[in-house]
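Hello again, I could really use a second opinion on something today. I've dropped the whole record in just underneath, so have a look.
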Amino acid sequence: MAVELPTGYYLSNFLELIDHVADQYGDLLSAEELAFHRDFHQLGEAPRKLLVRMMTRRGEAFRHSKLQYAEISDTGHAARELRDAGFVEDSASVPVELVIPLFSKPEWLRLLSELDLDRTALAGLRKLRRPDLDSALLELSGDHDLRGLIDEPVYRLTNAEVFETFKLLFFGNLYQDLTEFVLRDLGLYRFEDYRIDREARLFASREQIEHHLHYYQTVADIEDVLTGPAEELLALHARLPEPAPDDPVLIRRVQRTRVKLARQLERIDALEESLPLYEQCHLPLARERRARILARQEQVDAALTLCREILDAPIDESEAVFADGFGYRTARKFRRDWEKPDTYQPEQITLSLKPTGDSVETVAALHFQQFGACHYLENALFNSIFGLHYWELLFAPVRGAFTNPFQMRPHDLYESDFLQQRQTLWQQLEQKLPDINDNADHYLEMWQDKFGITTPFVFWHYLDEALIRLALQRIPAAHWQAIFTRMWSDIRNNRAGFPDLILFPDDGGYELIEVKGPGDRLQKNQLRWMRHFHRHDIPHKVVHVEWC
């Protein structure tokens, strides 16, 4: 059933955002930000609605004719109230460089016809592309009052940067916006009721807030810089803020940007410039790229030493997999010693099945149902039980983990220190795993209580209570433990790669089955899972289907 949003829903959402920030961070807000919050509440309803409409649109300057909304009867009067309260500037104060893009090329050519310009000049302007026309108009404004040609008011927000700060403090980032409220209000998402308060807030000082704002201002034009020469890449890098040691969120953001810049330097063959940037990072990709560059420069011993360092203390499993494989190939190429990686191959059989028009996995599942209950679940089963078992851990009140009510996961879920920050609770939950087969009722109660809450793990509509109970009866606790341990070793990547089917034979037990259609083959992450299954005696096989 479609949900209709109430009139003025965006104003309610905006008030929820700024009121939350004022409550959580009132002690860290600047005088300007506090005044914004206070003065906004003193506005009439129409000016408040118009200001929110302007603040949630792209840009900071707007034409009056483009600010027409059914729920605001007199936008001119509302705009004047905003001007008198200091929230907007009107035409005379708006810089001409902000006015120029608001009007189309035909509109400007019509307006310019009122100036005393010769035909040659006007003809030249007509031939210009939009960016060149804007530059020409800006130059022309030095001798002519272009704003005087405009026959409608233009408004400019005076405090757009204040709203940016409020969004940062509410969401913890600047890539989310008020759209999150709409998705919630439409009933598309339901979120856990986790703790958000001053004790667990992300920002502890005004200086920290300024550093994060500085970061976002610096990377605002990174996509343009990435297409430029090495000098521009290094110049942007030099402008990045230096995070405080106790600000892991900004440390990660800066390091990811640093890796992005280093990767582009590498692509344009500026290897000597990229290496120092990688060396300043503690991300898996940074060490991987360093090893590749060193090998490319034929610094073989240094590359192999780095691979061994990774294997001795990998940040995550994917990094270790890289170091083992790349180290072996490099050592073999340059005649160095290196132990051969695991080459285990799973059992593989071929079935000839009749096509039905369904997917190959569905057809295979129907075939195996003659031997017992067979379900096409892929990643759904193990992820879902994982999510239910560790629910308390995933939504634990850790500083900076939750900053707004629209999170399906804590901000730091995929970071290497996630478990370290929750060590005691994690150990308690690990101690409960040996009894997982005896606690089906506990997981089914959670399933009912939490059903539909957005999470990256639980597939609410793929499973049912009977299937959950059957899986907990048939799959030994040691197997759940082995699978969950590997998931934690690289939680971002190891949520995927599970076999397509799970078969519960009539005579007991279970088996995981990966189905491959004609021309398909095992992916690397699937093979890594099967090697793990082999080491822990988890039953599995690969079925190749050929059509009769």
Observations:
- The chain has 26 helices and eight strands.
- Residues 348-547 form one domain.
- The longest strand covers residues 540-547.
- The beta strands are 61-63, 88-89, 154-157, 348-353, 372-376, 501-505, 511-516, 540-547.
